[in-house]
Amino acid sequence: MYRPRLLTPGPVELHPKALEALARPQLHHRSEAARKIFLQAKAGLEAAFKTQGQVLILTGSGTAAMDALVQNLFAPGARVLVPVHGNFSERWAKIATEAGLEVVRLNLEWGRVVRPEHLESAQGPFDGLLLTHSESSTGALNDVRTLAQAFKARFPESLVVVDAITSLFVSEFELEGWGLDAAACGSQKGIMCPPGLGYAALSPRAIERLKPRGFYLNLASELKAQSSGESAWTPAINLVAATAAVLEELLPRLPEHIALKRQQNEILYATGQELSLKPVPEVKSPATTCFYLPEGVSYAQVKEAFAVRGATIIGGQGQLKGRVFRLSLMGYSDLYDAYAVAQMMREALRFG
Ligand SMILES: *Cc1c(COP(=O)(O)O)cnc(C)c1O
Question: Which residues form the Aminotransferase class V domain (predicted)?
Fold first, then answer.
């Protein structure tokens, strides 16, 4: 008998503090109690992103934060470089195209990471660079700090915007310290809350450069409202309360938590190696594993082998659909869980 478990890179197993917060009576979002919680969540997120700027809490998923950043930091016609090496970096290209930007794609094989040499090959000038820190569709981790540095050496006026959706709380991250201007995250990933919030981080430089547009995701309206603990529209206040509650416990021990996530992922990759599974990413993100399917085995078979053991896993997206499977312990879990999942891999992946 198995308890149902999510081993997916979002949504994830919830933190008990999130569950506790969600069980509280409904708050009115324009009450003093709600404002206090909102400001607590906002300050906690600013500490997590390591920014002296502001983190805006948006009701929507991680993509809402990505969309809001592109729309509010670049005017239509702005020229941005987008390295594409997976499903989520592809999403940056789609969002920017939809926002009327001139998108210069840098196509790399899925699973690869972006190197400064790749950026060098792109013909400027550019107003911005859109990067994916942890490309969850392939399990690859980019060195966004080095990339931002290399890009800004050539285009000092540009803005570097990062999808940190599966890297924040899972891997080291710094906004201004790494030369980044803005970043996005979502509630159903490393922070172990339910889906429903997008977090949009703006450095002081990005705040100065804001070119607000749009109605619902207008960041100038949000900056104004959120500085006093409200938001322009009715926020998912219950999820904001869950965010605040988890941060209170997580922030003081973030370095240990990040070390745990790395160790868990190493255990799963080591088990994959023992089973002769071929990893997809060139540089491994601690947020998820991504393995090619064994010869002659379908994703449906692997999925079912985990499902009978209570676990939900996930397959490939885009061009990796039907070719890979992914496992993640980004959610609430410890080393014990990693060893249990490793043993389950040995049992579930015994085919033929
Ligand atoms: C989950 C995820 C997103 C956002 O997806 P939503 O469904 O909008 O929350 C974006 N980028 C990465 C790398 C992700 O893992």
Answer: 23-316
Is the CATH number of domain 5-12+253-348 1.10.405.10?
A: no
Predicted TM-score (pTM) of this structure: 0.98
pLDDT band at 350 (very low <50, low <70, confident <90, very high): confident
Kindly give the distance from the C-alpha atom of residue 289 to the centroid of ligand 1, in angstroms, as a whole number. 16
Reduce the DSSP state of residue 5 to 3 states and report it.
strand
Instruction: Decide if 169 contacts 187 (C-beta within 8 A).
Output: no
Residues of the chain with CATH 3.90.1150.10: 5-12+253-348
Domain limits, CATH 3.40.640.10, in the chain = 16-252
CATH number of 16-252: 3.40.640.10
Cα(9) to centroid of ligand 1, in Å?
9
Q: Which residues line ligand 1 (CB under 6 A)?
A: 9-10, 61-63, 88, 132, 134, 136, 163, 165-166, 186
In angstroms, the CA 196 to CA 236 distance is: 7
Q: Is the pLDDT of residue 279 over 90?
A: yes
**If you take atom 2 of ligand 1, which residue's CA is the nearest one?**
165
User: How many angstroms is it from 84 CA to the middle of ligand 1?
Assistant: 15
- Ligand 1: distance of its center to the CA of 350 in Å? 31
- Tens-digit pLDDT profile for residues 86-97: 999 999 999 999
Residue 25 has pLDDT above 70, yes or no: yes
